[in-house]
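INTERNAL AUDIT FORM
Audit reference: QA-55
Scope: verify that the stored structure record matches its stored sequence.
Auditor: D.O.
Record contents follow.
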Amino acid sequence: MAPAEEPRPLVFWEHRLYPGDLARLSRVRGDLARDLAGFDDDLVETVRLCASELFANCVRYTGSGRGGGEVLRALSMPDRRTLRLSVSDCGGGGSVPRVPVERGADEWSRAEGQRGLLLVANLSRAWGHFRLAPWADLGTHVWAVFDVDPERAPRGLRPYVFTR
């Protein structure tokens, strides 16, 4: 039996690469607004908010925010009803993104910074993460998927969208 092939994305936006600096957050949000022009405004704002949280986590908890690191943003529609956002950091943090369930004293002191993932978990259909080559600590890839109403998506989307 041949392995099942995953369907190719219906739409795939060119990746965007940002310096690992919180000062770039407005650029990340602005780029998403441009890339998602024509989509439902509520969806765009939800994705921008979640992207802000994920980008900030990349900068705060990984090597992306410590001199010269970068954050890679990817955006795709694997089907007509799904928008997938992902960010990848450049490693060096050693931590795994998670929403704390049971909190010890250390986790309670960090709780203020943990709300971003709760927000992503509640605003997206699903989210997750995986390590990029964990034996070399090349970073973490965090993704979230959002529901798209096909009737409220722009017409004429091309399979590959070049970004400026």
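Auditor finding: record pair retrieved intact. The first strand starts at residue 11 and ends at 19.
Action required: none
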